Amino acid sequence: MFPDLAFHSPQVLWGLLLVPVLLFQAWRERRQRAALRFSGAHVFARQGRGFRAYLLPVLPGVRALAVVAALVALARPQSRDARVRDLSVEGIDIVVALDLSTSMEAGDFRPQNRLHVAKEVLAEFISNRVNDRIGLVVFAGAAYTQAPLTLDYGVLREVLKQIRTRVLEDGTAIGDALATSLNRLRDSEAKSRVVVLITDGDNNAGKISPLDAASMAESLRIPVYTILVGKGGKVPFPQGQDLFGNVVWRETEIPINPELLQDIASRTGGEYYRATDPEGLKQGLQKVLDSLERSKLVEGGASATYREDFHPYLLAAFGLAALELLLRATFLRVFP
Q1: Can you tell me the distance from the alpha carbon of 243 to that of 232, in angstroms, rounded to the nearest whole number?
Q2: 171: left (phi over 0), alpha (psi -120 to 50) or beta
Q3: Per-residue pLDDT tens for 134-164?
Q4: pLDDT tens digits along 169-193
Q5: Mean pLDDT of the region 22-43
Q6: What are the domain boundaries of the chain?
Q7: Can you give the pLDDT at residue 296?
Q8: CA distance 146 to 77
Q9: Other CB atoms within 10 A of residue 37 CB
Q10: Domain 93-300: which topology?
Q11: What is the C-alpha to C-alpha distance for residues 176 and 179, in angstroms, rounded to an integer?
Q12: In 213-244, which positions are buried (b, 16+ CB within 10 angstroms) versus exposed (e)?
């Protein structure tokens, strides 16, 4: 009748055998107990039975139903989901290298600057992942691992919230950022490993040249997807505050090198994207995922998922027990 119904603790249902015993005991006590002792019972016999007299035998049945509902609830009925969950976990190992140079404060994404928009889009990107391990490398004049590869997206989002500009030595060390990211992925066993480089400028710092780092990625067979953030040319850049605390913006030339990012992407088997607005950055990250092959990190079989359905039985048990106690104390109260 219920092909998808199962019990987590079916042994509890053996207690249902006691229900007929309880009903028989209640019937026997009622037959043996005198409800009222009176020398002239024939006087009451002529009056007939009242409505309450017909309801009194129902009380043991209400109690028995409460016991049945409680036992069923304790057995933990569960319904099986029609969908079968694949235990093979598919995922990609992704290291995001995020530029924290002061040029990321440019306001061509106003009312927010480039870094703020990049953090928002990355947070959404992280929230939409399920089985992908993600790491975070930040760089300016030097590169550092901010978060190793992890599946703990909550921690990763908190780390992302804390990062800001003007903490690292200023500059744009693209080569160092790539080398640090590759070091994070070097020992990964995932079939799909990728670096996503998000920057708004040209390489002007660091100890490793971007093309040397690209050659390292090529030898490791790790594609690098580059995303150039910003419009390029003269863009609004904060120059301090006025007397009223408002940010003063001034058009400033910020050099970019799209050819370098294109070269890195083509050498490593990745792709180059240009993001001139928040939507462009979001689409760039999505295109990175769409172009990658999923790898099986954990081999497994298939498993059905179950939903707990004991709640209505438990509520019924409490409701029936309360109803019996209420009737015995009020409308069906029996006076000895």
Answers
A1: 30
A2: left
A3: 999 999 999 999 999 999 999 999 999 999 8
A4: 889 999 999 999 999 998 888 878 9
A5: 63
A6: 5-35+43-83+305-331, 93-300
A7: 45
A8: 46
A9: 7
A10: Rossmann fold (3.40.50)
A11: 5
A12: bbebbeeeebbbbbbbbbbbeebbbeeeeeee
